[in-house]
Write a structure and sequence with these properties.
mainly alpha; 0% strand; 2 helices
């Protein structure tokens, strides 16, 4: 495997882990009893969505290079 393939695979592995954290954020927000925990859960889920789109963009840019 060349270094480019390993880099792209790294983006996907980290994106999968961040997706799990985003799902955890949704669960935290759903079961929150105060506004702070709800805000943290929603922020974690939003971060996961933005990171996953960024990782998809970066991995496709690496494929073209």
């Amino acid at each position: 495997m060349n270094a480019n393939v390993m880099t792209v695979m790294g983006y996907w592995v980290i994106a999968a882990l961040v997706t799990v954290l985003g799902l955890l954020g949704i669960v935290l927000a759903a079961g929150a009893r105060d506004g702070g925990m709800q805000a943290f859960g929603l922020a974690l889920a939003a971060f996961a969505v933005f990171y996953d789109f960024w990782a998809i963009n970066r991995s496709h840019d690496e494929d073209e290079a």
